[in-house]
Amino acid sequence: MAKVKNRRDNHNIKRPKSHAGYGESAGTREMRENSGRKAPERKPAGRSASERRPSASGNYKDRGGRREFEEREADTNIIIGRNPVTEALKAGREVDKLLVTSREGSMIKILAMAKAQGIPVMYVEKAALDRIAQGKAHQGVCAYVSPYDYATVDDILANAAERDEDPFIIILDGLEDPHNLGAIMRTAECAGAHGIIIPKRHSCGLTETVAKASAGAIEYMPVAKVTNIAQTIDELKDRGIWVAACDMGGAEYYRTDMSGKIAVVIGSEGFGVSKLVKEKCDFVVSMPMVGRITSLNASNAAAVVIYEIRKQRDTRSLHM
Are 82 and 143 a contacting pair, CB within 8 Å? Predict the structure, then answer.
């Protein structure tokens, strides 16, 4: 976007009263024509209406001071209409969330089914669903479904057993950025982790953006979606798995033994590991922060700890 000069600078230039705005004055035009130089092209101070207006299939996102268009997830990830959503719930389709406008009529049954399956429900204005449905009849409801299948915690443990290895699990507590999720999946797959656990609420699901950020790791890394992270941690501990929270106030990660059965918890981008989840963990590991910035990006912190576990496992195997 072109910047308009400071008004104080403009006030230093005397213009004829008949001349308006910040364009080229008559005197300046005459001097330019005598010198043979072309007038510089002036860009408009704002974008055109077509550039500013998001289309029905996406929105804008700020990147590096620049507003770029970001495509919305493919329409195949959205089910609209009361009957299609009802049948999807009956069939046990993996639904990330429901968007509804009311609680009347047949919506009562849909909401009851969503509650029974632990599916998050969001109440929105009709205009919001109109944009999502892109002119189709949504009847006040739409469901976001995952294009990828989720695993279970038992599937993850079975994966470790098949490889004859101690379980190595990543637990993400409220991670919402799909790029971070994809990056962590990529690191976990490269380091030999057996699976990732995410919560149903306040968490990013498996989307096309996650798939792209994972660089294909989504095809090989099992991801389990659970209703309650704290309860899942208790279940893992009952199976002999140690659970470590990656957060502030703990021992240095490289001084902590994480070579056995281990699950490491990575917190959300803005708030870290939640208080209840942190209390459920067996211990906390931290990274030394000696600069002026006191935290790392979630995917970066995960990569450091994941590869420390990989290193400790490889070192242990060398001494066996």
Answer: no
- pLDDT tens column, 91-130: 878 888 899 988 888 889 999 998 888 888 989 888 888 8
Cα–Cα distance measured from residue 114 to residue 210, given in angstroms and rounded to the nearest whole number: 24
Task: Give pTM, 2 decimals.
Answer: 0.66
Residue 182 near residue 207 (C-beta atoms within 8 A): no
Strand pairing partners for 196?
A: 170, 223
- Within 8 A by CB and 6+ apart from 317, the residues are none
Tokens matching residue 235: 């279940």
Domain range summary for the chain, segments of one domain joined by +: 75-145, 153-318
Top CATH class of 153-318 equals: alpha beta
CATH 3.40.50.970 is right for the domain spanning 75-145: no
Residue 246: strand, helix, or coil: strand
Asked if 265 and 243 touch (Cβ cutoff 8 Å), the reply is yes
